[in-house]
């Protein structure tokens, strides 16, 4: 059997206690916390815990509890079971007989599946270290007792089912145990009819507070939606005006930029035309100077060629005359030499010639023919 306290969680353990519930219920609870008064907020907190306590200590029920949203919150409030007795209603003997075993599996309530389940933001889910396995897990993995989060995760708690809890806490609270609930106080027991009547009255009061809180939340939501619609209309009008003025400014800026570009292009065209004219004049002048220089060079070359030709012709004539003179001298020398040889031969033959005149005349004739 599990115990559930009546205390409303304060600001100190609000986020620590918020880890007990699925994220959709946490979002709804935070939305109510910003809109309603503390009594209605306490009623919302009690109803959320009553919805979730059916599977808070059972890890297989978390997937089903995550489907609870605002649409089926009223149905879940009507289906909430009667809470177990408060620890103050039990004596010490009954409190000592209680153990930490998980409750028996209750019949699963089929909750309508929403069309779109929002994704869980893992960065916003708090976590703590388990005292059994020393692993850092999210608060959804820890069981609860008296609306408080235990320091041992579900896996370690399942392993320790047969261990009985301590009769009373004799040592001072250690680090991480500041929020452990105090031991129950012994009081006089009441009848079951009184307990059931008080529970029914508390349930009716809780349901009325929840209905009032939901009506206030719906009214606040409607007011907020109207304000948001008016703000959106004002923003749309302002955006339309800003877009129109921005469009006119952009058109005027585009016109000025186009005129500036056209003026710059005209200036560049004029400067390029002047530069082209200056380059053309310079080119024509340089071409005329080059033509004059080429003509002077051709004239000088022609004169030099004519002078060289005349000099070579004179040299050739001088060489021809010298050659003719040398050839004439050579011919004369050879003629003189041939005459001397003929005369020497004549003298030699004369010594051996016969003394007759006719014979000598025939020899002389042959010699002179040979020479001449």
Automatic annotation (TrEMBL):
From start to end residue, where is composition biased (Acidic residues)? 89-99
Q: Where is this region: Disordered?
A: 81-122, 160-189
UniProt name for this protein: Uncharacterized protein
Biological source species: Claviceps humidiphila
């Amino acid at each position: 059997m599990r115990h559930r306290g009546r205390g409303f969680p304060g600001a100190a353990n609000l986020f620590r206690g918020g880890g007990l519930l699925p994220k959709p219920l946490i979002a709804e609870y935070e939305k109510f916390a910003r809109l309603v008064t503390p009594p209605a907020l306490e009623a919302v907190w009690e109803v959320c815990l009553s919805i979730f306590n059916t599977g808070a200590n059972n890890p297989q029920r978390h997937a089903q509890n995550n489907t609870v949203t605002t649409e089926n919150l009223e149905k879940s409030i009507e289906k909430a079971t009667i809470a177990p007795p408060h620890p103050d209603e039990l004596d010490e003997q009954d409190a000592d007989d209680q153990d930490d075993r998980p409750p028996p599996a209750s019949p699963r309530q089929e909750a309508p599946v929403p069309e779109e389940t929002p994704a869980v933001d893992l960065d916003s889910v708090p976590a703590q270290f388990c005292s059994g396995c020393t692993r850092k897990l999210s608060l959804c993995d820890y069981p609860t007792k008296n609306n408080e989060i235990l320091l041992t995760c579900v896996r370690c708690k399942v392993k320790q089912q047969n261990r009985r809890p301590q009769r009373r806490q004799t040592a001072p609270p250690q680090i991480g145990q500041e929020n452990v609930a105090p031991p129950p106080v012994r009081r006089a027991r009441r009848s079951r009819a009184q307990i059931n009547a008080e529970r029914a009255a508390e349930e009716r009061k809780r349901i009325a507070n929840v209905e009032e809180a939901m009506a206030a939340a719906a009214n606040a939501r409607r007011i907020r939606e109207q304000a948001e619609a008016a703000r959106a209309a004002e923003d749309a009008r302002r955006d339309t005006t800003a877009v129109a003025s921005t469009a006119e400014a952009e058109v005027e800026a585009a016109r000025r930029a186009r005129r500036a570009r056209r003026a710059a292009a005209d200036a560049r065209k004029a400067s390029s035309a002047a530069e082209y004219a200056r380059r053309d004049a310079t080119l024509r002048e340089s071409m005329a100077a080059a033509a004059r220089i080429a003509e002077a060079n051709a004239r000088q070359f022609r004169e030099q060629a004519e002078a060289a030709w005349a000099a070579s012709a004179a040299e050739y004539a001088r060489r021809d005359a010298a050659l003719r003179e040398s050839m004439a001298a050579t011919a004369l020398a050879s003629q003189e030499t041939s005459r001397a040889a003929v005369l020497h031969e004549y003298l030699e033959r004369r010594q051996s010639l016969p003394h007759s005149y006719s014979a000598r005349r025939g020899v002389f004739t042959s010699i002179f023919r040979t020479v001449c």
